[in-house]
């Protein structure tokens, strides 16, 4: 496979892969099978890992790997079409064809699985099933006990049901919640409270689900509480009314109300790397030379936010009149 020198995340490797298969998995959800163009093995990955997919025009989108982590002949991702998204899902659903070559990052894992847990309890909402499916596969391979609570609008909106049912034949438990069928919603507070103290808990889903999960898990040992957001926990700063100065060119731009710093840069044809546009992935991390950021991301640690040396320009704003960026 072609290995390309640089990546959206500094230091990471980029790969050229070929789209081998596209399949409708559920209403609005399509899966993509990616293989090395030359048929060689792909870099190994672990359950919970994701790849960054580079979309022409500078967009980068992160997608969890859903296939068995033991596989090195392919990567599988699934994409939910978001009608009001920022274009990544619309491009994925409309443009690539089987046989096309695409550019991705090597897998990275910000949501690793504790493989030796006495019990793993997985909470999935909608497309949040993707990293958790890879975890269920891995736990089944290891023969470790797992339980999956999977919530979706209807069976037609729930991807990978057949594969999950097969996995349960090897020891896992599956609790399906389809909102349209009158099944009571997941009682996260109760399920988390009833979980054995040494169980590891994982959650991936919409913002409200993650927030409920974190509230329910607040008193548990935090090393056993794991989550991955695909929507930010805090709204982006769009009040505007401040200037950004690009240190290297000296260019000064005014951020208007309704715009983020990233919007302002892109509107002025300034090319920067970004991916999730939601303060989650870290791709748009930018150095701060001067000024006080208004941090809105879920990526930087509290300590990093206090130090004010970096800002996620896709969602964070400024508390000072001027922000000087290392751009
Ligand atoms: S683009 Fe992902 S954190 Fe900004």
TrEMBL record:
UniProt keyword list: 2Fe-2S, Flavoprotein, Iron, Iron-sulfur, Metal-binding, Oxidoreductase
GO molecular function terms attached to this record: 2 iron, 2 sulfur cluster binding; metal ion binding; oxidoreductase activity
Top-rank taxon: Bacteria
SUPFAM superfamilies found in the cross-reference section: 2Fe-2S ferredoxin-like, Ferredoxin reductase-like, C-terminal NADP-linked domain, Riboflavin synthase domain-like
Native organism: Noviherbaspirillum pedocola
Pfam families recorded: Fer2 (PF00111)
InterPro entries in the cross-refs: 2Fe-2S_ferredoxin-like_sf, 2Fe-2S_ferredoxin-type, 2Fe2S_fd_BS, Beta-grasp_dom_sf, FAD-bd_FR_type, FNR_nucleotide-bd, MRET, Riboflavin_synthase-like_b-brl
Signal sequence bounds: none
Domain 2Fe-2S ferredoxin-type intervals: 242-327
Protein name, entry field: Oxidoreductase
Residue stretches making up the FAD-binding FR-type domain: 12-114
């Amino acid at each position: 496979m072609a290995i390309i020198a640089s990546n959206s995340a500094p230091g990471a490797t980029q790969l050229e892969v070929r789209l081998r298969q596209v399949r409708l998995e559920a209403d609005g959800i399509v899966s993509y099978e990616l293989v090395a163009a030359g048929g060689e093995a792909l870099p190994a990955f672990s359950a919970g890992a994701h790849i960054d997919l580079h979309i022409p025009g500078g967009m980068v989108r992160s997608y969890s790997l859903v296939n068995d982590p033991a596989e090195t002949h392919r990567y599988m991702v699934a994409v939910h079409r978001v009608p009001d998204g920022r274009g990544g899902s619309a491009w994925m659903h409309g443009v690539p064809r089987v046989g096309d070559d695409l550019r991705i990052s090597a897998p990275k894992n910000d949501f690793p699985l504790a493989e030796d847990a006495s019990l793993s309890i997985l909470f999935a909402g909608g497309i949040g099933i993707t990293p958790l499916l890879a975890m269920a596969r891995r736990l089944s391979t290891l023969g470790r006990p797992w339980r999956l609570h999977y919530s979706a609008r209807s069976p037609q909106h729930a991807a990978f049901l057949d594969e999950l049912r097969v996995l349960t034949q090897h020891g896992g438990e599956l609790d399906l919640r389809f909102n349209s069928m009158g099944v009571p919603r997941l009682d996260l507070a109760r399920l988390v409270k009833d979980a054995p103290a040494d169980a590891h808990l994982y959650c991936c889903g919409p913002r409200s689900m993650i927030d409920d999960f974190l509230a329910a898990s607040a008193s548990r040992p935090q090393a056993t509480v794991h989550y991955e957001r695909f929507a930010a926990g805090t709204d982006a700063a769009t009040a505007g009314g401040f200037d950004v100065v690009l240190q290297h060119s000296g260019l000064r731009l005014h951020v208007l109300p309704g715009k983020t710093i990233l919007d302002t840069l892109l509107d002025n044809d300034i090319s920067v790397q970004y991916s999730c546009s939601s303060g989650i992935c870290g791709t748009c991390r930018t150095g701060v030379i001067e000024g006080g950021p208004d941090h809105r991301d879920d990526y930087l640690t509290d300590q990093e936010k206090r130090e004010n040396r970096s800002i996620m320009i896709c969602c964070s704003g400024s508390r000072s009149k001027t922000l000087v960026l290392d751009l």
